[in-house]
Fold this sequence. Notes:
Mean pLDDT: 87
Radius of gyration: 15 Å
CATH class: Alpha Beta
Structural class: alpha/beta
Amino acid sequence: MPVIDLQDLAAHTPPNTPWFGLDLGETTIGVAASDATRMIASPLQTIRKTKFTPDAERLFAMMDERRASALVIGLPVNMDGSEGPRAQSARAFARNLERLRPVICAFWDERLSTAGVERFLIEELDLTRKRRAGVVDRTAAAWILQGALDRLRG
């Protein structure tokens, strides 16, 4: 199935199945999961990028384990709303996943998600730089997924 509009995601997925959120970085993929009711997103794991196929297989295994029915992928658009190389890379990631296995995907504007997460981890949790490095990607994925879930609830 091709990438679909976020508003149509629920109609294309079975009820009571979680969704995954992804924050695609240059060297890592932050992964988050929602609960089955799609109310709360939680950080799950960070995948260190190696090669695309093994990374995708690891992601698919995590989805299968949790019976996740869709992916919400952070789309890093520019502040003016245009799409640059990072957004094109996110779109290519979704296309390449589809070549390996049918997967339902939607994009969510992730502008400033990592910056917001960094600020939260510093100001609210007072985490050191070293501790932040271990959690920022999966927390950004949860931020992305939670934003999409909140948007769908109105």
